[in-house]
Amino acid sequence: MLSASDLRKGLKVQIDGNPYIVTDFEFSKPGKGQALYRCKMRNMISGNQLVKTYRSNDKFEKAELDERKMQFLYSQGEEYHFMDTDNYEQLSLTKEQMADNINFLIENMDVEVLFFDGKPIDITIPTFVNLEVTRADPWAKGDTSGNDTKPVTVQTGYELQVPPFVEEGDKIQIDTRTGQYVTRVKE
Amino acid sequence: MLSLEGLHKRAAFFRYIRSFFHSLEFLEVDTPLRQPVYIPESNIVPISCEGQYLQSSPELSMKRLLASGCNRIFQLSHCFRKGELGRLHLEEFQLLEWYRTGCDYNQLMTDCEAFLRFLQEAMRNYATSCGDLNFTELFPGVDLSAQWQRLTVADAFAQYSPIPLARALEAGSFDAILTEYVEPCLGIEVPVFLYAYPHQLASLARKSPSNPTIAERFELYIKGIELANGFSELTDEHEQRHRFQKEIAAIHANYGREVVMPERFLQDLRNLEAAAGIALGVDRLFMLALNCKNITSSVTFAPEDFL
Hints:
The structure holds 2 protein chains of 2 kinds. By secondary structure, chain A is mostly beta strands. Chain A contains 1 helix and 16 strands. Chain A has 3 domains: about 1-60, SH3 type barrels, CATH 2.30.30.30; about 65-125, CATH 2.40.50.140; about 130-185, CATH 2.40.50.140. Chain A has a 6-stranded antiparallel sheet, with no helix packed on it. Chain B is built from 9 helices and 11 strands. In chain B, a hairpin with a 2-residue loop joins strand 3 (about 45-50) and strand 4.
């Protein structure tokens, strides 16, 4: 069991059978009063936010979470299929569980699948991914409009702003935390 | 870690604190940090040290000195409270405490006004003398020269809390509501003395002779930050023993810790006449002087400076 004084940013606890991650944490204690632990938490399954203030004798159960390295195979409708390359075990997550990750996911990509109570609930993809530009307007040389970026579409269908020199067929690196262009990749 | 400039500023700050109290003929004292007894307060967890305890406040020692015949004393000392770590809390921090005999807590509020006005002026002069271009006024935007506000706890709850004081006390949510709704509104334009605490929220303060449901205790707030806690001292040995017994029982029930009754302190209370005392968080005050948001930027070494 964990007590309120163990609370800190990033801690994963179990509340009413759901795993929560502490996203923000503040200790306060009015003069001679009780210690209060104000937490912002995110339900790791539904994504719902929870703000709650705990007292020092409140107790928590640690959320038992496992992570396993798996490979993305394919998507079919709303389902995204992954395989454990050690034992060939397969499983799927829903589009909703995948959230923004679908913008950056390509076949054979290695990801970390997060399990709570034996069920997959989330994935972590690499921080940087290289994706191919599938649609880009040509750069009109001498363009004096002053725009220093232009929109392109990558192989996953994701659209982003890139420098004007990026062309169709180029590979670009994207920071998956921000969804932004990093650099053009030569292969 | 404080910069060289910060170290100089902190040294000046402590020099001015001392000169203020010397000018009022307060005697500077220093009492042991480590003692075999500690104040039985259910919300404060002591840090133990070789079978003894690091003090959570020099309060008991200071009052014993009053009982031995001192009239006006002050002390700057390190204090320790386990598990208190946050934007405004450090497990080791410094308190300025001062005590007077022959008066009640109203005198301490007057002291606070004179003290902070003096300190503001002194820090301003210090900045001029060393050509400090980054100088920020102590408490920018807060007018120390204006009349400071005095607000009872009941009025503060009526004004800012979603539920009245009596309901909050009943539900055990006084502290939570104070922190969430009341404190952020206090001392924004002028400093505020929050006073007249419900009697159950003051284990060492005297009950008001005219209204025993309240304790003669106050807290000073500036910019929503609690800076000091002062009160008219409880000098009745029997009542103090009774309150300590309740605290000791609560600590045992909630945390399973055995607490020893501070007998020598209770004995000395017999020799104590009317008195009042206050503890002020010096690190928080210096944090405001540096215009910082976090207490760790106001101390010479913060806990993370050792990692």
